[in-house]
Design brief:
Length: about 850
């Protein structure tokens, strides 16, 4: 039975509400709990939180929780389980984990001490190796680890630090003290998710967050960024966050960190080494990289010296590092300290190197590479957990990470014993860990659930700075010993409760000595490529939806008596089929069914839904450059078009859905035009839109304004280019071929005409950097200037389908020239000339 709970509340109703939440709260026997102390009473800091929540009605609490879920979706916070292609929405727990300031000081001091110790271990392992020579550490613990990167032996990192960003997995032991469960140095994840959790929770309960004096995260990130900048020893260093790419499990977090810290998010293909220096490929040529925050595992960093199959790394990167020409956080090889084998030796190493005991002890570990330790583990196997000494999977037991000795039957125990005696160095025995519990909100009440906490530390000029909070994972089951975000766990915000009100710290610099810059950063070629195609996909989706809308409108009109305008319907169907927006015409497929397939079909690459998904993929690669509002609308467009794939719909239903999708695209266009900074990134986004719109205008003109076109077809063209009102205001007579073609192709004042797009394309190209020193125009601009001049002197009366088709082909050649000049094309992307700008 649960112990009696007592809590003070401001009103009787609030008191009754809180009492109902905790009435059945029952942590497992002998397991520490965050909410309830050993005396069975609610801890004071939790009492304050529950007292405030108790003053809210059930409806208000539900509304706040629902708003938190919407914020997570709107912010695009997500993660991906290994092996899955679709992202999952981030699972945020409704309650934070609360840690009093006094307790946090002990945790922070222990994590900082451990980070310093492990940095010293790495320095020794890749340097003098005194620990091995003097018998403090078996050589097999170093050499036997797959994370020991031999090519880095003897390397001296800039500033002497192997570790610059460290994380410790901690849990509360049976006696209530915190223990280290493991170390993370390869590419620690979670800090960005901690930041996203904080943004959501602070907006969900702003008063509660303020009143409880929660320590802020911004100073930690500010100091980390300043430390990386200082390590570069450059006035304006270029700092990159190296990501494995959009299919990384934590890509959303990497995007968030790059955006928040102002780092350049790059993939391996964006980087190139030359003369033992690291450069990023940009639209202005190669630019020197000073610092890299690495989120790619070391083995994949350099295909020349490490994993030759890697497409994530940079050939020659290790040579650049050894020369000291780039600062890496963390150095390749830092993952060595993650091995469980090292845990059994750390207490003695701490006394040897630091002259003091570990402030945060790790769980008891015995490395079975030593006969005495192995025999001791086998003798007490029923009470031990057996884990891999190196890596994540238990040798001889595929798919298992940790095995409890008590769970083995006689055959399994014998097989494990034989394996440990044959190659004991692959195994460690560990104390069986029972995680402590924290309250989570479930069905209108609080229930205890096991949790683990990841705490982050950053190396700064003043020593190690520990993030006041961390990345907390909470299990969805009461008996879980190991937690993974892919196994139904939630993440909780971590509130370190200060002794006094906190300052409103941000990442803004405190010094006034900051040089003003208006052209921020250099645009990587990969980012330019994806922004360009993002613009094209948006415009292509809009063109497809306009075709579907026009078809639905004419199908409605076709029901009227004596309707004779069959030509535009047939031509609209023909264009949709030719574009691959709908499957090959089945005689049994009605025009309305064709329209539905073109809007939300999943079997064709040209449907509006497929195009929207392609736009979302391109946007995901440059997500750090997009506002949350833009990303929300990108996701909303896909979701709205996906509704079409759920089943049959009538013409009015299709028409309504198409109109709503076009409104979303209009909102996207407005956000991009009004809120996107007019730097190179916006130029390429708008270039993509202009190129696609010009090509589509040519195609529409050829299909609906040929010599055999009826007035209805000409009206359809005006509708597709959104120019009916303008045409009627200029011409009192009905639609005529030459005026309609002039408006669609040549009119420089019509934002939907080919001529207008070409003029904008030429203006964009004139503002982009050039690599030529001879004053001659580069290929893309040369094509654009010539095309603009020809359109300006052209006569609409002389336009025909052949000339418009030739114009369309030249626009496609211009797009190819843009790609050849500005986007990644392999080794020929390495340009070294100093860029200049044309007036």
């Amino acid at each position: 039975m649960p112990a009696e709970r007592t809590i003070d509340a401001t009103t009787g109703e609030a008191r009754r509400r809180v009492a109902s939440w905790i009435a059945r709260y029952a942590p497992p026997e002998g397991v520490p709990d965050e909410l309830v102390g050993p005396d069975g009473r609610v801890r004071p800091h939790w009492a304050s939180l529950l007292d405030t929540l108790g003053g809210l009605s059930r409806e208000d609490i539900d509304d706040r929780f629902a708003a938190a879920g919407r914020r997570i979706r709107d912010m695009g916070v997500s993660y991906r389980v290994l092996g899955e292609t679709k992202e999952r929405t981030w699972p945020l727990s409704r309650l934070p984990l609360l840690l009093p300031q006094a307790e946090w000081r002990e945790i922070a001091a222990g994590v900082a001490q451990r980070a310093e110790l492990l940095d010293m271990v790495l320095r020794d392992a890749y340097g003098e190796q005194r620990l091995v020579k003097e018998g403090a550490l078996p050589a097999a613990v170093i050499a036997g680890s797959p994370d020991y990167i031999r090519p880095m032996s003897g390397a001296t990192p800039p500033g002497g630090r192997w570790l610059r960003f460290y994380a410790a997995e901690i849990g509360r032991g049976p006696d209530g003290r915190w223990w280290v469960l493991g170390d993370r140095a390869q590419a620690p994840s979670g800090a960005g998710y901690s930041l996203e959790n904080r943004l959501v929770m602070a907006r969900t309960f702003p008063r509660l967050y303020r009143d409880m004096k929660v320590e802020r995260l911004a100073p930690f990130f500010r100091d980390f960024r300043a430390a990386l900048a200082k390590a570069a020893q450059q006035k304006d260093p270029r700092i990159c966050l190296l990501t494995p790419g959009p299919f990384s499990e934590s890509y959303s977090e990497q995007v968030s960190l790059a955006r928040y810290l102002g780092f350049l998010l790059v993939e391996g293909a964006d980087l190139v080494t030359s003369e033992r220096k690291l450069h990023v490929r940009t639209i202005a040529g190669l630019k020197r990289v000073d610092v890299v925050w690495r989120r790619v595992d070391a083995d994949w960093c350099d295909p020349l010296e490490l994993n030759a199959a890697s497409h994530l790394g940079v050939p020659g990167l290790l040579d650049t590092i050894r020369e000291g020409n780039v600062t890496i956080a963390n150095m390749p090889g830092a993952g060595l300290i993650e091995s469980r084998a090292l845990l059994s030796f750390l207490p003695a190493i701490a006394r040897r190197l630091l002259g003091e005991d570990l402030r945060l002890a790790n769980i008891a570990t015995w490395w079975c590479g030593q006969d005495e330790a192995r025999d001791a583990v086998l003798a007490s196997l029923e009470d031990r957990a057996v884990a891999p000494a190196f890596g994540e999977h238990l040798a001889g037991f595929p798919g298992r990470r940790v095995a409890l000795g008590a769970e083995f039957d006689a055959e399994g125990r014998e097989r494990l014993t034989d394996a440990m005696r044959a190659r004991g160095m692959d195994y460690v025995g560990q104390e069986v860990v029972q995680l402590s519990t924290t309250p989570v909100w479930q069905d209108g009440a609080l229930v205890p659930r096991p949790f683990a906490l990841r705490v982050f530390a950053a190396a700064t000029a003043d020593g190690w700075r520990v993030m006041p909070g961390g990345f907390c994972r909470v299990s969805d089951r009461l008996d879980v010993r190991a937690i993974s975000m892919g196994a139904g766990a939630q993440s909780a915000d971590v509130w370190v409760l200060g002794d006094r009100p906190t300052d409103n710290s941000t990442l803004l610099p405190t010094s006034d000595d900051v040089e003003i810059v208006r052209m921020v950063g250099d645009l990587p070629s990969r980012a330019a490529d994806n922004l360009f195609w993002m613009g094209r996909y948006f415009e292509r989706a809009e063109a497809t939806l306009r075709l579907v809308r026009s078809l639905c409108n004419r199908l409605t009109e076709a029901d009227a008596p004596n309707y004779s305008g069959r030509q535009p319907i047939e031509r609209l169907e023909r264009v949709l089929l030719a574009w691959g927006a709908a499957p090959t015409r089945d005689p049994r497929l009605s025009a309305a069914e064709l329209a539905l397939a073109a809007a939300g079909g999943t079997e064709t690459a040209g449907s509006a839904l497929s195009i929207a998904r392609a736009a979302k993929h391109a946007a995901s690669i440059v997500r750090e450059r997009l506002s949350q509002d833009i990303w929300h609308l990108v996701r909303l467009l896909e979701a709205r078009l996906d509704d079409f794939s759920q089943g049959p719909a009538s013409e009015p239903e299709v028409l309504e859905g198409v109109e709503q999708s076009l409104h979303i695209l209009a909102a996207l266009s407005g956000l991009i035009d009004e809120n996107f900074n007019r730097v190179a990134g916006w130029c390429f986004l708008d270039l993509g839109k202009r190129v696609e719109r010009a090509i589509n205008a040519c195609r529409f003109s050829r299909q609906f304004a040929d010599e055999g076109a009826t007035i209805d077809s000409l009206d359809t063209l005006l509708e597709l280019i959104d120019s009916q009102i303008t045409y009627r205001s200029r011409y009192l007579a009905g639609a005529a071929l030459a005026p309609v073609l002039d408006m669609a192709v040549l009119d420089p004042y019509n934002p939907r005409s080919v001529g207008f797009q070409v003029a904008k394309i030429e203006e964009h190209l004139s503002s982009l950097p050039t690599l030529r020193h001879d004053g001659l125009l580069e290929a893309p601009r040369r094509l654009a200037v010539k095309l603009r001049a020809e359109i300006e002197v052209a006569n609409a009366a002389e336009l025909d389908a052949a000339k418009i088709f030739a114009l369309e082909q030249r626009l496609m050649s211009l797009a190819d020239a843009l790609a050849a000049r500005y986007f990644l094309q392999g080794s020929n992307a390495a340009h070294f000339e100093e860029p200049i700008r044309l007036a």
